[in-house]
Amino acid sequence: MLDTSRGQAPAPVDEEPRGCLFALSQPPLMIFLGVIGCLLLMGAVHDLFLL
To answer: Is 12 helix (H, G, I), strand (E, B) or coil?
Structure first.
C-alpha cells in the first residue's frame, strides 16, 4: 500500500556524488585491472618476440 502519512522528511545528503576517480582508488579494482593489464602485456610480448 502507498504510505501517504506526513512524517519527518529525510535529511538532505551533503556528500557530493562519487565519480570515476573514487572508483579507481579502490584497491580490488586496481588489482583486477593490473592483472588484466599484465596478461595483455604478456600476450603482446609473446606475439611480438616469440612468434
So the answer is: coil
pLDDT value, residue 21: 79
CB-count exposure of residue 33 (10 Å: 0-12, 13-18, 19+):
exposed
Q: 24 with 30: CB under 8 angstroms? A: yes
Q: Terminus-to-terminus CA distance in the chain, angstroms?
A: 67
> Cell digits for 30?
586496481
Q: How many residues would you count in the chain?
A: 51
| 49, 41 Cβ separation under 8 angstroms | no
- Can you give the pTM of this predicted structure? 0.56
